[in-house]
Amino acid sequence: MLQRVYDWIDERLDITPMWRDIADHEVPEHVNPAHHFSAFVYCFGGLTFFITVIQILSGMFLTMYYVPDIVNAYESVRYLQSEVAFGMIVRGMHHWGASLVIVMMFLHTLRVFFTGAYKKPRELNWVVGVLIFFTMLALGFTGYLLPWDMKAYFATVVGLEIAEAVPFVGELAATLLAGGEIIGAQTLTRFFAIHVFFLPGALLGLMAAHFIMIRRQGISGPL
Ligand code: HEM
C-alpha cells in the first residue's frame, strides 16, 4: 500500500533522486566517531541544529499561551508554567535549550576554528556562521525580556545601556530597539515581534545557506 502511494508520487514528482542524494551521501572516515572517537567534535554542528529545532517547536507552543502586553505577559507565563498540561516541560525545554544552544554553537565554532575549516574555500560559510552567531545571541536577548519579571526588565535595561554605549549610533540603536525613551509597552511588543518573526526568519534563511554550502563544498578534510 505504502509502496503504491510512493510510486504514485514518484511518477509525478520524481522524488527518488532527491532523497537518494542525501541518503547515499558517504560520511568520510575522519568525521565518523565510530572510527575515531575524537571525531565526535564534528557532531557539534548537527547537535546545534537539533537543539535549534527543539527551540523552534517549543517556542511555537509557548506562543499559544503567551500574551505580549505588559499587563498580561507575566500572568500568561505563570499560567502556562503552573496550570497548563506539559506547560512546565515545554517552557523548561525552551528556557534550558536557549542556553544549551549557545554553548553547543560555541563548541561547533571552536571545532571549525581549530580544524582550520574556515579556510579557503569555506570563508563564506564562516561569514554566514558569524551572522548566525549574532542572530542566536539576539534571540537570547529579546527572549529574555518576554516573561516581564524583574530579572527580565533589568537585564534589558543593562542590555540597552550596553547598546547605548556604542559610539555615534548607540543612542539611536537603543531608542529603535526599545521603541522609545523608556522600556515599556512598545519595547515588549517590539521584542516579541523580533523574537518570534524577524530573527527566526533570518535564522532559517541563514541556516539554509549554511547547509547548502556545506553540501556543495563537502566537509573539510582530515587534519
Ligand atoms: C545555528 C547554528 C549553527 C548550526 C545549526 C550549524 C550547523 C553546521 C553543521 C551541521 C555543519 C557540518 C559539520 C559539523 O557538524 O561540524 C557545519 C559546518 C560548518 N559551520 Fe556551522 N552551524 C552553526 C553555526 C556556525 C557558526 C557560528 C560558525 C562560525 C562562525 C559556523 C561555521 C561553519 C563552517 C565554516 C562549517 C564548514 C566546516 C567544515 O567543512 O569542516 N557554523 N555547521
From TrEMBL:
Transmembrane parts of this sequence: 39-67, 96-114, 126-146, 152-179, 191-214
The UniProt record lists the keyword tRNA processing: no
InterPro entries for the chain: Cyt_b/b6_N, Cytb/b6-like_sf, Cytochrome_b_N_euk/bac, Di-haem_cyt_TM
SUPFAM superfamilies given in the database record: Transmembrane di-heme cytochromes (SSF81342)
Keyword Transmembrane tagged: yes
Classification via PROSITE patterns: CYTB_NTER (PS51002)
CDD domains the record matches: Cytochrome_b_N
Keywords attached to this entry: Membrane, Transmembrane, Transmembrane helix
Positions of the Cytochrome b/b6 N-terminal region profile domain: 5-223
Protein name, UniProt field: Menaquinol-cytochrome c reductase cytochrome b subunit
Gene of this entry: qcrB
